[in-house]
Amino acid sequence: MKNIGILGSTGSIGVQALDVIRNNKEKFNVRVLATNQNIDLLVKQAEEFKPELLVVGKEELFDKLEHNTSHLNLRVEKGEEGLELASSFTNLDLLLISLVGFSGVLPTLNAVKNKIDVALANKEALVVAGSLLKKASELSGSKIIPVDSEHSAIFQSLLGENINKVKRLFLTASGGPFFGKNKSQLENVAPGDALKHPNWDMGSKITIDSATMMNKGLEVIEAYWLFDLPYDQIKVLIHPQSIVHSMVEFVDGTYKAELGTADMRRPIQFALTYPDRTNKAFSSLDLVDKKLEFHDPDLKNFPCLSLAYEAGTSGGSMPCVMNAVNEVAVEYFLKNKIKFLHIPEIIQKIMNKHELIETPSIEELYEIDEWSREKAMLEIKNLPVR
């Protein structure tokens, strides 16, 4: 039985992970659950799964959470100190990290340093601190198991293979809700339009990232750190059907791919049960009468993907800047304060202003993240009134 912790248990990935665990109760013991602010759902999860530790990110909600769980025999903590405890909790076998954005960086690094295997659903941890995480993983022996459907597909396709025999990795993308549209058509799209993903049910931030193609850009950088291949061997293909979740091309021209339904519980389940598989699967894929289409990404109308390649190849502190500015821009777009096309414009401007630090420490990354957010908000403030 694996001892499991979930940081971000009330979000989309966390809820689906608990559904996987619910269907495999004999395999898992949930010891830690954490949320940023949804304490009502967290209490229900605690009542069902009986963890030993609960953490709430927003400190002002601590007293309410403690009061609402007084009937349970567990410990309640808050804020960054609570997440630090959760990511180093005694005898954890696996920690699923599905926190949103930069908030996942330090807990991921902490877990790896404490020799806890990580099921990683937080792209930003590797995007921002890939070098630090890789070094920590090599020193501790902790495994980083990808949860994203694309990286899980590549991870599974590479099992038993020699990485030196890989020619290219292909990350597939649905294209999001605006596939095929040009800039004039994107000029006045509303947040509600961007949140209508054609295939996947995800949180709001990742859904907007999918619409701008930044999500795929983050995944390119993540793949760079996960699979030790240079950026010119990591490609993106638009695949509107979301059936092929990613592919590996080998030097002999052979392709290996993972196919399945658009259900995140499958890659979550694989990450939780790895290196084993369970026969308690979800809906099977029916390929009869299915079309598989692949297209090159439209970098002209969706420049966020190019910005991610630029940040990744620059290395050092640049991905941290790109990620922080993107988080701010997406937040303001969701509030209807900026336009959809402002997102890549703001990212490019702040990246151009940044003086690269080649090997930033975790402390420097926090400073760079803060600087980038301040510059992004100033840029937004100076935009013409909508």
Structure description:
The protein has 386 residues and is of the alpha/beta class. The strands form two sheets. A seven-stranded parallel β-sheet has the order 4-3-2-1-5-6-7, with helices on both faces. A four-stranded mixed β-sheet has the order 9-8-10-11, with helices on one face. Helices cover 45% and strands 15% of the residues. It has helices spanning 12-22, 39-49, 62-68, 79-86, 105-113, 123-140, 149-158, 183-186, 191-194, 204-212, 214-227, 265-273, 304-314, 318-334, 342-353, 362-381; strands at residues 2-7, 28-35, 53-56, 75-78, 94-97, 117-120, 144-146, 166-173, 234-238, 244-250, 255-259. α6 (123-140) runs parallel beside α11 (214-227). It has a domain at 2-146: NAD(P)-binding Rossmann-like Domain (Rossmann fold). β5, α5 and β6 form a beta-alpha-beta unit.
What is shown here, in short?
The protein is α/β, with parallel strands linked by helices and 386 residues long. It has helices at 12-22, 39-49, 62-68, 79-86, 105-113, 123-140, 149-158, 183-186, 191-194, 204-212, 214-227, 265-273, 304-314, 318-334, 342-353, 362-381; strands spanning 2-7, 28-35, 53-56, 75-78, 94-97, 117-120, 144-146, 166-173, 234-238, 244-250, 255-259.
What fold name stands as the CATH topology of the domain at 2-146?
A: Rossmann fold
Structural class by secondary-structure content: alpha/beta
Mean pLDDT: 94
Sheet of most strands: 7 strands, parallel
Number of strands: 11
**What's the CATH C level of the domain at 2-146?**
Alpha Beta
C-alpha termini separation: 55 Å
> Roughly how much helix do the residues carry, as a percent range?
40-55%
Task: List unreliable stretches of 5+ residues.
Answer: none
CATH homologous superfamily of the domain at 2-146 - what is it? Answer: NAD(P)-binding Rossmann-like Domain
